[in-house]
From TrEMBL:
This is methylmalonate-semialdehyde dehydrogenase (CoA acylating). Pfam families: Aldedh. Signal peptide: none annotated. Belongs to the aldehyde dehydrogenase family. It is an enzyme of class 1 (oxidoreductase). Coiled coil: none annotated. The keyword Oxidoreductase applies. It comes from Helicobacter apodemus. GO terms for molecular function: methylmalonate-semialdehyde dehydrogenase (acylating, NAD) activity. PANTHER family: MALONATE-SEMIALDEHYDE DEHYDROGENASE, METHYLMALONATE-SEMIALDEHYDE DEHYDROGENASE [ACYLATING], MITOCHONDRIAL. Its EC number is 1.2.1.27. The keyword Oxidoreductase applies. InterPro entries: Ald_DH/histidinol_DH, Ald_DH_C, Ald_DH_N, Aldehyde_DH_dom, MeMal-semiAld_DH. Residues 12-476 form the Aldehyde dehydrogenase domain.
């Protein structure tokens, strides 16, 4: 069985630790790799050599930095099938989904190829007499990223390409549940010609993250994961007066207005709620049917009954297994709670079997109706193919529910009314809004703008905000003496040279 290596100062090394985490296949429970919980001195070595690499890299011409990204995006595309196979096998998501995961990632690398424009500062001439002010964006130094299990390709790629093209070095601590995709992405990054030491990959869990959090040379932390861990990392980093951004949990609502056509909404809702086994921070986990639109619910249930999870390489699988046995148990416990609280489990996928994989972490589509906002199944992020349905009378009631929810990652409204859509866009307290688009994840030239309890920090992931997150602005005010030197130095200097 493979022992996952770390990437330290350009070399893939085996940790000397005695402590490992097993990566279990979500299809079979077979142990497919061992992840080291690395030693403090190994992590310190990674940070030290990252800092040395940064000191050279920050002075490397911007076009040279950009060329690394041009090469890297091409390498990811050329190796997409292989990367997607690795990703599917460790994470469980279907092959198409895995390719989507990586595609969303390399789009960020493509965006990083605009570094010369993105790194431009601002200039104002004549801020006072014979005085100009201009600004530069300068890198911070060593930055770190801690990533979750659900997007093993996309989320590391949200972080290190933009940090590095901006002139920083980066320490990546991937999820211990899905380390293999990150390691292959790191290998390809080295192939793209990046100087050694700029990307380091370390492994472990809380103890190793704590070492990163306390390290004086690390200047900024990007985190994506669960709310509790995000709150811990954000508060610890900022307590140490460091910069931090934490993208965390979600409860995303889709509002279905009665003016929308059934066919326009049902397939979108199925994909958004069940796709990737609901293990997406932008998955729709609550559908709010407004007024007469509730007549679509029976059709939705009928269509969901035809959907089945399966192995990553089964072309008929709608989605894969949940990530771990523990996760499946947590979700099943929550479903029990929902039943006890009085919600109606109108579709129960708990006993689903998938041929050939008796030990997979399977959960068929589950739907609760009669869900109330005080229930645990409504309040908590389930992160599984479980949809909660709420019925309301009008858009105002729908908005009240969404705006009172603690999370604010994504939401969508399905309607043909421009006025209704615009009212919703204006009033909703959620950071990413879809109009007739079920999962409104912005492309990388925008930023991923979760709100409320879905994000701790100020500057968001990718887009221009990420460049600002990974840089400091230096503002220069410069005085010159044209008037005073008219008869003096300037002209004498020119005369001297013209002789
Ligand atoms: P997680 O919080 O368990 O783990 C994320 C990372 O934190 C991993 O690298 C893990 O090793 C590390 N970690 C775990 N416990 C820690 C601790 N006590 N101290 C320090 N580090 C620790 O999250 P997960 O289960 O891998 O991912 C699922 C969560 O991620 C969901 O809540 C989902 O909504 C969220 N997520 C959010 C976004 C977003 O953009 N808002 C995107 C993807 C996932």
């Amino acid at each position: 069985m493979e022992t996952i290596k770390a990437l330290i100062n350009g070399n893939f090394i085996e940790s000397q630790t005695k402590q490992f985490v097993e990566v279990l296949s979500p299809l079979t429970q077979e142990c497919i790799a061992k992840v080291p919980c690395m030693l403090e001195e190994e992590i310190n070595e990674a940070v030290k050599s990252a800092n040395e690499a940064y000191l050279q890299w920050k002075n490397t011409p911007i076009m040279a930095r950009t060329r690394v990204m041009l090469k890297y995006q091409a390498l990811i595309k050329d190796n997409l099938e292989e990367l997607a196979t690795i990703l599917s096998m460790e994470q469980g998501k279907t092959f198409d989904d895995a390719k989507g995961d990586l595609t969303r990632g390399y789009e960020v690398v493509e965006f990083a190829c605009s570094a010369p424009t993105l790194m431009m500062g601002e200039t104002v001439e004549n801020v006072a007499k014979e005085m100009n002010t201009f600004s530069y964006k300068q890198p911070l130094g060593v930055c770190a990223g801690i990533t979750p299990f659900n997007f093993p390709g996309m989320i590391p790629l949200w972080m290190f390409p933009l940090a590095i093209v901006a002139g920083n070095a980066f320490i990546l601590k991937p999820s211990e549940m899905v380390p293999k995709t990150a390691m292959r992405l790191a290998e390809l990054f080295l192939e793209s010609g990046v100087p050694k030491g700029l990307l380091q990959v370390v492994h472990g869990q809380k103890e190793q993250v704590d070492i990163l959090l306390e390290h004086p040379l690390i200047k900024a932390y990007s985190f994506v994961g669960s709310p509790k861990v995000g709150a811990y990392i954000y508060s610890k980093a900022t307590h140490n007066l460091k910069r931090a951004q934490a993208l965390v949990g979600a409860k995303n609502h889709m509002v279905i207005m009665p003016d929308i056509n059934e066919t326009q909404v049902i397939n979108a809702l199925i994909g958004a709620s069940m796709g990737a086994a609901g293990q997406r921070c932008m998955a729709i986990s609550v559908a709010i049917f407004v007024g007469d639109s509730k007549k679509y619910i029976p059709r939705l249930i009928e269509k969901l009954k035809a959907i089945k999870p399966g192995a990553w390489n089964d072309p008929n699988a709608a989605y894969g297994p949940l990530i771990t046995r523990a996760s499946l148990k947590r979700v099943k416990d929550l479903i029990e709670t929902g039943i006890k609280e009085g919600a109606n489990l109108i579709l129960d996928g708990r006993n689903i079997q998938v041929e050939g994989y008796p030990d997979g972490n399977w959960l068929g589509p589950c739907v609760f109706t009669q869900v109330k906002t005080h229930m645990e199944i409504y309040k908590r992020e389930i992160f599984a193919p479980v949809l909660c349905i709420i019925e309301v009378n009008n858009i105002y009631e729908a908005l009240e529910i969404i705006n009172q929810n603690e999370f604010g990652n994504g939401t969508s409204i399905f309607t043909n009314s421009l006025s209704c859509a615009n009212y919703f866009i204006k009033e909703v307290t959620v950071g990413q809004v879809g109009v007739n688009v079920p999962i409104p994840v912005p492309l990388p030239f925008f930023s991923f703008t979760g709100w409320k309890g879905s994000f701790y920090g100020d500057l968001h992931a990718y887009g221009k905000q990420a460049i600002n997150f990974y840089t400091e602005t230096k503002t220069v005010t410069q005085k010159y003496f044209l008037e005073a030197n008219k008869e003096g130095i300037v002209f004498n200097f020119q005369e001297n040279h013209s002789k």
